[in-house]
Design goal:
The chain is of the alpha+beta class. It has 2 helices and 9 strands; from the N terminus they run αββαβββββββ. The protein has one domain: Sandwich (Immunoglobulin-like), CATH 2.60.40.3340. β8 and β9 form a beta hairpin.
């Protein structure tokens, strides 16, 4: 049952990605950092409840997965992820990531609040196992439903 929920949340996150940006991936050395940010109302209620995600028209979610591009089968990596979001006025919002494990899959989720039509710039530090690290920066505009 839980693997079906993980599959559903992964599918929803991947399906929502084209609405904001096509392939959301950054290569950092030997790391493939996959990321998506979306309004939390896109997550089905049952999935949100099982992962403790607050669904609200002013709440959003970042999902990050890190793969080793030098390994066959690209296994998921554990990491320490920190970051912040800032709007165009310079107001910052700290991001607190939590690890979610489901079998071999490892995801990092962070929730944050936003104002309608707010454009946010994300600055994220990734420190993956094996002393590999780097920065991920992107921006995205969010809309309340």
């Amino acid at each position: 049952m839980k693997s079906r929920i993980l599959f559903l949340i992964s599918t929803v996150l991947m399906l929502m990605s084209p609405l904001s940006h096509a392939e959301q991936l950054k290569n950092i050395g030997s790391l493939e950092v996959h990321y998506s940010a979306l309004n939390a109302t896109f997550i089905p209620p049952a999935v949100a409840k099982s992962y403790g995600i607050k669904r609200s028209s002013a709440n959003a979610l970042i999902n990050i997965a890190i793969l080793d591009k030098n390994q066959a089968g690209k296994p998921a990596l554990t990491a320490n992820i920190t970051g912040k979001a800032r709007n165009l006025l310079g107001t910052t919002k700290p991001l607190t990531f939590r690890e979610v494990r489901e079998g071999k899959a490892i995801y990092y989720l962070a929730e944050f609040r936003f104002a309608n039509e707010e454009k946010l710039i994300f600055d994220i530090e990734v420190q993956a196992q094996g002393n590999r690290s780097g920065k991920l920066s992107f921006q995205q505009q969010f809309y309340s439903e």
